[in-house]
Structures are given as structure tokens and as C-alpha cells.
């Protein structure tokens, strides 16, 4: 639930009007959107959800909401979603607001801005036609990896991975760190500030609780978001090749859009230095745990056949697994998992619609094959891997069917059939 009260002159409470509110009110238009953070400008508000959807509302006379005017009064009293195509459909890592402008840092290190550019605070030069409410990508030298951004009233700052600081915008009082009082229209390096440190986004936002395990492709941690209080799973993968990293970003953008009760939800991605992070929904257990404890739960000794109750439960488990894989295969474009195994079939922490199981790591085989020290032949677990995947030949969805057959062999204890 989302609540608000106070001055609402610019419609900044998102209630659909701009009347003063002196008692706490539920803001219906913002409820159940899984909002994680709010960002306030002078006369507008932005909100970012768990699914990386950005909403804006309030005044829009300078295009500070990132959209064209809908009417002459420039007022948006209800939340409106920002179109992610203007930032290349990328995940958002950081947002900062000035009085009437916004800067966004995306997961691949690009900086975008929109809104008022009267003093050069968007860093896009004095000749940019900002009146058409376009979103501008701020052009930094490709040798500079931007790690953090910050906006003040009429100026903007960016910190690189090696501690250098750039600034642009209003500079009447030499407040941008340059030996001049002229406005700075494009990001300029503050020459004497070369050792500014910035805490990594991961350490700033998350607290490690425990490791869920590691393998050839990285390590998964249970983490707690320091501001939300929620727990997530975060996978860390080390990359040495920037080109491979960019390709994986593009791949993950597609996977983050998959929203289903059949799949573990990918929420966002980002990188710090050479470490690539994937934030995911946290699940409670895996099919691997179920297979370990199922005989004891049903009182079955080694070599004994299943009783009818265990067989019935096993059938229901396998039915849910089949439905998960069918969902992936029916997507457009189709997703072939390529690494189905008990460790990648998880039990949901919050059960919905009577479904317990979800597939994880779907679509990550491509990403894994590009990570440091890994090869396509090492993607997946050999015991469950179809021969065509293992041999790096052309494969189809039937590769997943092979893996399902091996899982069924384990689930129904077929080794003991005579």
C-alpha cells in the first residue's frame, strides 16, 4: 500500500487532482505496483518498481516526466509509465533528480537525461532542442566507466570507476569545481579530483545473508535489501570481456520481461567492475532437496518401491515441471532451457494459484558460456544434458525433453524397477 498527504499543488501525490490533502490517504493508483523507491524533483515525482518500471506524475512544463505534453496546463495528476524504449529498454541502476531535470544510470553504464537544460545540466550541449521533450544520452569518453550519478538543483555530476568526477550545469559561483564561473554545457572532468571513491551498488543496497552455493559460473547469495527489507537471491558472475558482457545484458533484458508463475523471476541486472549481478526472486528449496528427503518422508527404505501416496505426489511434482518447460517452449521467441536439473527447479516461497514449482536459470546457458573460464561444453550438468548440447551441435526443444526424462528417472526412483 502507498499513502500520502500534504501540499498537492502540482498533483505530486498522484491522487488524480491537485487539492491540498491534510489527512493520510491511500494512493490507489500506486498500490500493488511493487514500488521500491521514490525520487522527488521540485514539482514532480518518479517511482521505480521491483520490475524496473518507472512512473512519473506532477508538473511537466520542462518535460521532466520524460513525455510530451498532453494539455496546456502541463499537469499529470496521475502516475504515467515512462516508455523504456527511450533508454534502450535497459535496466535502471540509479536515478537522481534536480529541480526540473532527471539523470538515469542504466545497467550497462550509460547515462540518460531529460527535462530542463537551461544551464546545461543535462550535459547534451547548448544547441540541443530540449523543447521536444526528448531523452538524451550523455556522451562520455568510452574509456570512462560511469559508476554513480548525482543531481543538484541545476547541475549534474558523475563518478567513474577509477574515481574521476565530471560535472555540468549552472556554475555561477564556481560550484562545479572548475576555474571558471561560466555554465558548463557538457560534462567536464574536475581535474584535481581524481581519487573520489564510490561504494559499489551491491554493497550500498544489499547485505549478504548466506551463500546458496557456487559453481563454474559464479556464486548465488541470499541478500537483504537494506531499504526495502526484502530478501532476494543475487547471482554473481565474473567477466573479463566487455563485449561478452554487453551481449549478456541484451540477453538478460529479454529474460527480465518473462513474467510468469512458471519461472523464477529475474528482476534486474547490473555490473560493478568485472562482476555481473543478476537479482532474482528468492525461493525456499529445490527439487534436489525434495529428492534427498522424499524417501524418509514416506518411510521408504532403499530398494523398496513407492507406495501410492508417494507416487501420487511425484506425479503432481512432475506435472508442474512439465508445465514450466511447456511455458518456456511456447514463448515467442522460444526459450530452450538447456540446463534442466533438480538444482534448477525451485520451490516458490510464496505459493500462488496452487503452484509450488518454478524453473530457474532459464536462458542463462548463453550467458554462462560467455563468462570467464567457461565453455559451451561446460554449460549444464552432464548427467542431465542432451547429447547434442554436450557435443555443441544444433539442438531443438527436444534437448529439454531429454533432461526431463532423466529428472523423471530420479523422481520416480526408476533405478529400482525390475
Itemize the secondary structure elements and their pairings.
Elements: E1 3-6, E2 21-26, E3 35-40, E4 44-49, E5 54-59, E6 75-81, E7 92-97, E8 101-106, E9 111-115, E10 136-138, E11 146-151, E12 155-160, E13 165-169, E14 184-189, H1 201-205, E15 206-215, E16 218-225, E17 231-238, H2 242-256, E18 266-272, E19 275-280, E20 285-286, H3 287-297, H4 308-329, E21 345-352, E22 355-359, H5 364-370, H6 387-390, H7 398-411
Antiparallel strand pairs: 1-2, 3-4, 4-5, 5-6, 7-8, 8-9, 9-10, 11-12, 12-13, 13-14, 15-16, 16-17, 17-19, 18-19, 20-21, 21-22
Your description of this structure?
By secondary structure, the chain is an alpha+beta fold. The chain folds into two domains: about 5-190, Regulator of chromosome condensation 1/beta-lactamase-inhibitor protein II (Methylamine Dehydrogenase, Chain H, 7 Propeller); about 200-415, Orthogonal Bundle (Transferase(Phosphotransferase), domain 1). The protein has helices spanning about 200-205, 240-255, 285-295, 310-330, 365-370, 385-390, 400-410; strands at about 5, 20-25, 35-40, 45-50, 55-60, 75-80, 90-95, 100-105, 110-115, 135-140, 145-150, 155-160, 165-170, 185-190, 205-215, 220-225, 230-240, 265-270, 275-280, 285, 345-350, 355-360. The strands form six sheets. A five-stranded antiparallel β-sheet has the order 15-16-17-19-18. A four-stranded antiparallel β-sheet has the order 3-4-5-6, with no helix packed on it. Helix 2 runs antiparallel to helix 5. The model is unreliable at about 365-380 (pLDDT under 50). One of its GO terms (cellular component) is cytoplasm.
